[in-house]
Structures are given as structure tokens and as C-alpha cells.
Recover the amino acids of this structure.
């Protein structure tokens, strides 16, 4: 038998206070990001905020500062310009602006005009363009809200049916913790919140919940077995230790696939993969250090046998 | 015993079904461009047929245009609203069919939106025109030159006044005085200058190839007095009667300036309700400079495009592109009346408020007519006009609220990246699981490959659309599928450690892990369902592949691996 982890007996629950402090910080960061999104102050992708994206490549190398200057000084002061690294075609850039029109022209046409003026003689080829009117952004926001609401309610409902009230609440908290943490980190990194990032957040919510459910299943099973002998805290700690090798193996394989998307999946999936990677790491941490300790704390303050 | 046989039978049936579902897609994917050309030669349309049967590729993978339109309901009467979107879809579908896009997808979204997907079509500007044009074709007459000149004179003086007033504000001049002065000079200077431009300069300029537009610009006229007309040069006149008509050349770079002037409320107040200013549909080149035409039209619609029949492309007397048509019955009579009584006058062909061209009527036209395209027009422009006229007018104006254009190179780049990342991810996981769980791991790897095979087969069979996020969904499925086996194997290891026999450990491992596996699948399915319901386009692709991948993994990771374990029943050792 080839094993990374021998039988462990780590006192995870004993470290819960430290973990709570760390997690509270993560949650606060996430909540701050959430408030900023609500106040429309976060870096929302054009799919939510409306705007124009233009991706293309230059025939010969240019200086990104020149491009940025040309665009910001010609009516798009808030433009974001990004060079595509690891891209098949050299000198590829993505330009994002909040506008969809520029005077009488469409913003995308104006952008191409500006580029042609500044870099005349250096052919600019469009690879892709995307214009989203504010009305579409609004309806996408609405859809995203519904998708989040339905999946969160569905998960809570399922957990409520499968487990008791306390673990349902604890699992929900752990899941929100993970999603908020990733959202917060994205906010700190000034990453754009796009539809794909929201998709990743929802996916990792499912992933994190799975992790928590695996631990809870084991706790429940062990509580039945050791009803008379064991202490509650010890049982929980043992359960976490027992499933630890699974937790690590699964995280490892999931990380492998998320990392390959991150490195080889191209620009479109880059942030999606980043969210997944962060989510897998934080989700693993939270299933060990957040989900179970909450149940322990609850039991300590209001004793009631874990079902 | 029985149980085992059934599992084989079901798996066998699934494999066959999978092969059937996947067959066309596999065939298409393995064809080279040469093969396709040969196929097309043997049986025209067969490649298209195959593409229709195979798994669809999303716009992000094969390139194309995605447009979301909003039908402007508020511009319609109550009664016309209910059917407007359906009729608009019908018209757009007709127009798109003429372009020859193989698998267009046109559907209604919500109450007033239409989604148009044109895979493989990347001429954004053309598509936009084609889809969005309301295509009201109208024939209109022009204001007489004298009246137009008078009007222009008035506009000039009003604009000069405004300009002076603005300046006056800055220099604290007396506005009353300047206004008087301007009103006089404006009137006097206007008439002769326009006449001369029409009669002599233009011909001269044409003969000598002189840059008359440039000469206008250099300010022969006092620009203070003629803020508007200094940018205009009369271009349209009937050679027979040598009468000028109010069609003007405007340098493309001046167009915006003139629009601003014309939009001023003071100017608008002077333009009577039965007149309108209209631009040419597109720019053309004159004396090496890009120009637009500005026309002063009489608002009254003389004739509507809907009477046109037998529309086809043609060539005019100077080999310019034309769209020819035929008129019958009522339409023919009306058109004959219209052209008969307006010989030697221009008839503006107006499409969606823009003037396509304004040819002078030479003679009475009864049955066969011709729309002469403007001088800047090429074959595509003529063809688009033909399509638009044939397919009919949109029942309501539409507004493009989202447009996504993906170039073909970007699409193929995405495919390559999707393929590379899937294969690398899959390979790494297979190696990791194989090393860590030995023979059992290899069994899990086999199940994993079944999972991916079935997933692709179902998606191909359902003609689901594969998108870039969809590929991510497939790769993530690998993680979830493997998780089931990890749960089972870790459980079996634990059972073995307690001293159980191999047989008992395997059975216990499967039965104890099953509930947890179902739990983890349900939570993922909830997410996939929510994303499918509310996601759009690419996100839906992600939801679809995640949903099927997870559902299938419940079978492959549990049933197929157990079946393989059960083949050898009596074994004492287990490589795990």
C-alpha cells in the first residue's frame, strides 16, 4: 500500500480558535468585496457592467504604455489594457472599456480608429470583440443572482434533509466562508468579476460542500459507533483524521486539473481556474478547520448529542 | 451471479449507444480538409450534413457572431406588439438564410429580445447591417434648389448668430447688434455662392480634377457668415435642364460637425415639417477624399419598396452595381404616375432613413426599374440590399444590445488549448491515481476513461454545444469522478486495516462510501442545474457538461469499477 499519509492523529479541533480568527478575516474581506460589488465599486466584468472588449494583435511589437496612452487620452480614461502572455499569437492585447458608444460611433469602432491612428503602419488584426449594452448587463446580473440563490437554497435544503439543523447551518457557513474568501482574494487582486468567475464560485461552493459532507458523514457514523465511550470532541477529531487522506488525495487531483486549466486553458479560463484553485485550497482548509469546529463549539455551548 | 451478468449487459449496451452517438462527431473530427473536399465532391452538402449530426462547437470555439437584439416595442402600437418579435425572427431568419451560414441559431429570449448566433461568420459589420436593418425602402422627391438655398441661408445666419452669441458671451459683446448684422450678410452672401458652386466650379473641378472640396475648406467664403454652407458643395443637377438639386458633397471628417449644427434646436425650428435632411448610406471617394452626400428631401413618401417584385442584381449603364426590380398591377401604375410627372427630377431611394442614391428620372418607368447603388457601393452592398429587399422589412426597429465576435483563429486557438489542457489534466490524474492505488487505481482510470467517452457520446448524441467553459466542465468532471473512487478506495483500505478479508473489505468499502458519493454528486448537480437554468451561452455549456459528467460518473465510478473488481471473486490479496 502506497500512502502519503499514515494514520494521523492531529488535534485539528484544538487549533480551532486560531482558525476562527483567520477565517473571520477571510469572511470580512469577502463581505467587504461583496459590499463593494453591491455599491458598484468593484471591478465588474463587462458582462455585468456593460461595455466593450476588443482583442487583437499587432503585426510588430508595440509598447503597452503607448497603447494605454492612446486609448486613455482619447475618450476612454478608464480603459483597461492587458497584454496576453503565453498566447499563440504574439503582440496580442485585450482592451476593455466601460463604454459601448463613443459619440456617434460604436466604442469598438472608435477603439480601432484610435489604434490605427497611433500605430499607423503596424497592422492591427481583430481576434474578437464583445459589446454588451447596460440592459444586458442588468439582466445577466439578475440571472446570476437567481443562479446563486437557487443553488444556495438547494444545497441548504439538501443538507437540511440529510443532516440535522446544526450541521446544516455549519456546512452552510463553511460553504459561504469559502466562496467569500475567494471573492475577497479576487477583490484584493483586483481581478475582474465576470460571469465565468461567478460560475467558478458556484462550482467551488458545490465542491466545498462535498468536502464538508464527507467529514460529517464520518462524524455521524463514528458517533453511532462510539456513542457511549467517546467524547464528542475526540470523535469529531478522529473523524477528521480518518478522512484526511481522502481529503488530501481529492484536493490533489482536483488541484491538478484546475492547475492544467490555469496553465494550458488559455485566457478565457484563466481566472476561472484561478478561482477553482483558490477554492479547492480554501475548501480543504475549511472542511477541516471550519465546518467541524463550528459543530464542536455549538455542542460546547449548548450540549446536544450530534445526530 | 445474475447481478453481474446484468451489469455486463447494461455496460455493453451503453458502449454501443455511446459509439452510435459519438460516431458522426468522431468521423467529422478525424476528417482532414482534403477528405472534406473529396466528400463534398462526391456528394455535395454531405459535409454540412455531417456537421449537423455531430456535436456542435460553440461560437467561442469555431468563431462567429453572437448578437442580442431588442425589438423596440415602445415604437409600436399596442396591437402590433404581440406578434412583432415572432415576425422579426421570421424576417431575420429569411435574411440569414440568404447569407448561407450553415447552422444559424435564432431564438427568442424573454419578451422582446432575439438571439442570433451565426457560427463561422465573422464579418461583423455586414452581419449587423443585415440583421438590424428595418429596411423600409421608400422613394422620396427632393426640395427645389431655390427653396433649399433659401433655407440654407436662414440656417447659416441663425448658426452665425449662435456662434457670435457664444463668442459674444466670452468677449462681452452686444448680442443684439451682431444678430442684426448677421441676418443681413447671411442672406446676401448665400445665393450667389451656392449658384456658382453648382454651375461652374463643380464642372470645372471635375474636368480639371481640381480638389474643389479642399478649395472650399480653405475658406473662400467667410466662415463666420456661413458656418454651415462652407462645408457643402452642390453635387446634384440635371444635365438636361441644368437645374441643380439640393444634394451636397460633405467631407467625411466634417459630417459630425454638420450633424451637430443641424441638431441644434434653433436650426430644427427653421426646418419645416415636410422637409428632412438625409445622409447617403455610405461614404464614397471623390478627389482622393472621403465624402458623404447630404440631401434635402421632401418628407412625403412617394412610393414604398413593398411593391417591388422579382428583385435581382444588375449593372447600370456605367457598369455600376444596380438592384433591378419589376412592378406589376397597382404598384406599376403608381410608379408610372410618379416617374411620369417628375421627369428630369431626382428620385431619392431611401432605405432606413438613409439615401442609397438619388438618380434623375429620365423617363416614365412602368414595369422595370433599377436602383442605382451609390458610387461607393461594391458588390456586397448591392447583394445586401437585394437580400434585405427580398426578405422584407422588420416589423419594428431593433436595437443591438449585445454583440460578440470571435475570430476564427481565436476559435481554433481555443480548441487547441482546450484539448491540451484536457489531455494534460487527464494524464496527470491517471498517473497519480495509478501510482497511488496500483491495480485498483488502474481500474479507476479505466472507469474514468469510460466516463469521458460516455460524456462526449451523450453530448454528441444530444447535439449539445461544446464551449470553452464546457471543456472546463469536462475536465472538472474528471476530478469529481476520481473523488468517488478515492472515497471508495480509502474506505477499502480502512476496512482492510481492521483485518477484514479482501472480499468483505471491497463490499464494505463500496456500500459505506456510496451514501457519501451520492451526497457529493447531488450538491454538484444542484449547482449544474441552477447554472443551466440561468446561465447563458457558454455558461450553459459548462452546466451541460458538468451535469452529464457527474451523472455518468455515478455509474462509471461505482458500477463499472465494482464490476471489474467482481470479475475475480476468490482473490486473497488486493493491490490498492
Amino acid at each position: 500500500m502506497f500512502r502519503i499519509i499514515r494514520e494521523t492523529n492531529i488535534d485539528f479541533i484544538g487549533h480551532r480558535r486560531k482558525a476562527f480568527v483567520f477565517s473571520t478575516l477571510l469572511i470580512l474581506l469577502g463581505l467587504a468585496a461583496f459590499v463593494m460589488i453591491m455599491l458598484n465599486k468593484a471591478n465588474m466584468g463587462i458582462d455585468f457592467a456593460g461595455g466593450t472588449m476588443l482583442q487583437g494583435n499587432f503585426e510588430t511589437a508595440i509598447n503597452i504604455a503607448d497603447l494605454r496612452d492612446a486609448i486613455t487620452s482619447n475618450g476612454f480614461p478608464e480603459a483597461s489594457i492587458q497584454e496576453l502572455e503565453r498566447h499563440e499569437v504574439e503582440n496580442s492585447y485585450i482592451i476593455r472599456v466601460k463604454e459601448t458608444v463613443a459619440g456617434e460611433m460604436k466604442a469598438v469602432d472608435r477603439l480601432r480608429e484610435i489604434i490605427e491612428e497611433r500605430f499607423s503602419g503596424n497592422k492591427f488584426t481583430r481576434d474578437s470583440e464583445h459589446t454588451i449594452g447596460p440592459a444586458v448587463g442588468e439582466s445577466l446580473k439578475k440571472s446570476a443572482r437567481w443562479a446563486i440563490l437557487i443553488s444556495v437554497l438547494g444545497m441548504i435544503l439538501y443538507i437540511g434533509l440529510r443532516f440535522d439543523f446544526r450541521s446544516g447551518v455549519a456546512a452552510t457557513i463553511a460553504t459561504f466562508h469559502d466562496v467569500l474568501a475567494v471573492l475577497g482574494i479576487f477583490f484584493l487582486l483586483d481581478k475582474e468579476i465576470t460571469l465565468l468567475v461567478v460560475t467558478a464560485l458556484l462550482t467551488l461552493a458545490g465542491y466545498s460542500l462535498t468536502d464538508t459532507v464527507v467529514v460529517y458523514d464520518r462524524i455521524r457514523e463514528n458517533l453511532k459507533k462510539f456513542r457511549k465511550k467517546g467524547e464528542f470532541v475526540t470523535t469529531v477529531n478522529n473523524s477528521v483524521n480518518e478522512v484526511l487522506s481522502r481529503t488530501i488525495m481529492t484536493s490533489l487531483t482536483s488541484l491538478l486539473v484546475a492547475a492544467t486549466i490555469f496553465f494550458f486553458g488559455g485566457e478565457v479560463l484563466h481566472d476561472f481556474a484561478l478561482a477553482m484553485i483558490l477554492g479547492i485550497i480554501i475548501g480543504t482548509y475549511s472542511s477541516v478547520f471550519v465546518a467541524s469546529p463550528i459543530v464542536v463549539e455549538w455542542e460546547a455551548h449548548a450540549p446536544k448529542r450530534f445526530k | 451471479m445474475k447481478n453481474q451478468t446484468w451489469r455486463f449487459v447494461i455496460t455493453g449496451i451503453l458502449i454501443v449507444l455511446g459509439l452510435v452517438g459519438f460516431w458522426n462527431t468522431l468521423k467529422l473530427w478525424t476528417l482532414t480538409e482534403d477528405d472534406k473536399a473529396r466528400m463534398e465532391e462526391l456528394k455535395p452538402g454531405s459535409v454540412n450534413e455531417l456537421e449537423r449530426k455531430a456535436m456542435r462547437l460553440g461560437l467561442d470555439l469555431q468563431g462567429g457572431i453572437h448578437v442580442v437584439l431588442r425589438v423596440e416595442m415602445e415604437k409600436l402600437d399596442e396591437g402590433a406588439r404581440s406578434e412583432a418579435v415572432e415576425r422579426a425572427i421570421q424576417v431575420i431568419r429569411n435574411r440569414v438564410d440568404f447569407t448561407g451560414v450553415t447552422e444559424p441559431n435564432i431564438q427568442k429570449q424573454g419578451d422582446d429580445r432575439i438571439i442570433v448566433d451565426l457560427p463561422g461568420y465573422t464579418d461583423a459589420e455586414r452581419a449587423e447591417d443585415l440583421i438590424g436593418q428595418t429596411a423600409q425602402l421608400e422613394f422620396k422627391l427632393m426640395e427645389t434648389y431655390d427653396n433649399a438655398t433659401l433655407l440654407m441661408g436662414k440656417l447659416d445666419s441663425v448658426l452665425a448668430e449662435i456662434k457670435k452669441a457664444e463668442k459674444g458671451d466670452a468677449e462681452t459683446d452686444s448680442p443684439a447688434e451682431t444678430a442684426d448684422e448677421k441676418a443681413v450678410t447671411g442672406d446676401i452672401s448665400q445665393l450667389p455662392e451656392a449658384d456658382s458652386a453648382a454651375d461652374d466650379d463643380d464642372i470645372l473641378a471635375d474636368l480639371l480634377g481640381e480638389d474643389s472640396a479642399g478649395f472650399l475648406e480653405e475658406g473662400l467664403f467667410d466662415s463666420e457668415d456661413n458656418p454651415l454652407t462652407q462645408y457643402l458643395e452642390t453635387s446634384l443637377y440635371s444635365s438636361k435642364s441644368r437645374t441643380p438639386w439640393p444634394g451636397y458633397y460633405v467631407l467625411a471628417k466634417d459630417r459630425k460637425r454638420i450633424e451637430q449644427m443641424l441638431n441644434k434646436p434653433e436650426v430644427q425650428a427653421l426646418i419645416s415639417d415636410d422637409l428632412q435632411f438625409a445622409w447617403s448610406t455610405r461614404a464614397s471617394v471623390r478627389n482622393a477624399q472621403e465624402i458623404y452626400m447630404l440631401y434635402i428631401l421632401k418628407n412625403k413618401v412617394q412610393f414604398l419598396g413593398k411593391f417591388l417584385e422579382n428583385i435581382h442584381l444588375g449593372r447600370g449603364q456605367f457598369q455600376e452595381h444596380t438592384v433591378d426590380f419589376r412592378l406589376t398591377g397597382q404598384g406599376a401604375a403608381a410608379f408610372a404616375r410618379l416617374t411620369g410627372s417628375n421627369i428630369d427630377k431626382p428620385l431619392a431611394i431611401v432605405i432606413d432613413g438613409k439615401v442609397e442614391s438619388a438618380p434623375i428620372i429620365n423617363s416614365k418607368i412602368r414595369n422595370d426599374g433599377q436602383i442605382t447603388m451609390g458610387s461607393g457601393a461594391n458588390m456586397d452592398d448591392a447583394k445586401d440590399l437585394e437580400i434585405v429587399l427580398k426578405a422584407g422589412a422588420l416589423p419594428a426597429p431593433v436595437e443591438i444590445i449585445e454583440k460578440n465576435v470571435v475570430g476564427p483563429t481565436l476559435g481554433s486557438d481555443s480548441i487547441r488549448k482546450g484539448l491540451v489542457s484536457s489531455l494534460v489534466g487527464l494524464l496527470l490524474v491517471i498517473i497519480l491515481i495509478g501510482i497511488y492505488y496500483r491495480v485498483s487505481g488502474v481500474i479507476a482510470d479505466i472507469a474514468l476513461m469510460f466516463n469521458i467517452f460516455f460524456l462526449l457520446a451523450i453530448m454528441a448524441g444530444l447535439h449539445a454545444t461544446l464551449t470553452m467553459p464546457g471543456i472546463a466542465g469536462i475536465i472538472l468532471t474528471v476530478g469529481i469522478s476520481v473523488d468517488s473512487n478515492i472515497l471508495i478506495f480509502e474506505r477499502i483500505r480502512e476496512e482492510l486495516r481492521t483485518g477484514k478479508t479482501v472480499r468483505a473489505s471491497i463490499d464494505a468499502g463500496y456500500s459505506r462510501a456510496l451514501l457519501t458519493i451520492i451526497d457529493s454528486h447531488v450538491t454538484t448537480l444542484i449547482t449544474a442545474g441552477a447554472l443551466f437554468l440561468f446561465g447563458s451561452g457558454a455558461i450553459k455549456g459548462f452546466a451541460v457538461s458538468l451535469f452529464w459528467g457527474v451523472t455518468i460518473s455515478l455509474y462509471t465510478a461505482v458500477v463499472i469499477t465494482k464490476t471489474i473488481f467482481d470479475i475475480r471473486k476468490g482473490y486473497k490479496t488486493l493491490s490498492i
Notes: The domain at 2-33+409-567 of chain B is CATH 1.20.1640.10 (Multidrug efflux transporter AcrB transmembrane fold). Residues 173-222 of chain B have pLDDT under 50 and may be disordered. The longest strand of chain B covers residues 289-304.
